[in-house]
Amino acid sequence: MNQVDWKTRRGEGAAAMSSAPSDHLGWDFAGDRGALAKGSRGSPKGTPVYGMVNIPGRGPPSQST
């Protein structure tokens, strides 16, 4: 969680304009790459990845470290 998540959880910022508080915090994510479908290309399974989604628009593509 980051500062924006804490603010949202308190109902401040953009959350203050919403009629229903969200149970989902944050637009950023991090983890490890899962298995690839057979025949696909990309970073190998287990590669650390991070990224950000931009709801409702499209976020930048995820990046690997």
Give a description of the structure.
The protein is of the alpha+beta class and 65 residues long. It has one domain (3-14, 26-64). 11% of the residues lie in helices and 18% in strands. The protein is built from one helix and three strands. The protein has one helix spanning 3-9, and strands spanning 28-32, 48-52, 63-64. It has a three-stranded antiparallel sheet with strand order 1-2-3, with no helix packed on it. It is elongated.
In the sheet with the most strands, the strands line up as 1-2-3
Structural class computed from helices and strand pairing: alpha+beta
Main beta sheet, described? Answer: 3 strands, antiparallel
Spatial gap, N to C terminus = 19 Å
What does the average pLDDT come to? 75
Number of domains: 1
Shape label: elongated
Number of strands: 3
**What count of helical segments does DSSP give?**
1
Q: From the alpha-carbon coordinates, what is the Rg to the nearest angstrom?
A: 16 Å
Q: State the helicity in percent bands.
A: 10-25%
Q: What is the succession of H and E elements?
A: HEEE
Strand content: 15-25%
Q: Any low-confidence stretches, pLDDT <50, length ≥5?
A: none
Compact overview of the structure:
The chain is α+β, with helices and mostly antiparallel strands.
Secondary structure topology:
Elements: H1 3-9, E1 28-32, E2 48-52, E3 63-64
Antiparallel strand pairs: 1-2, 2-3
Give the tags.
11% helix; three-stranded antiparallel β-sheet; 3 strands; 18% strand; alpha+beta; single chain; 65 residues
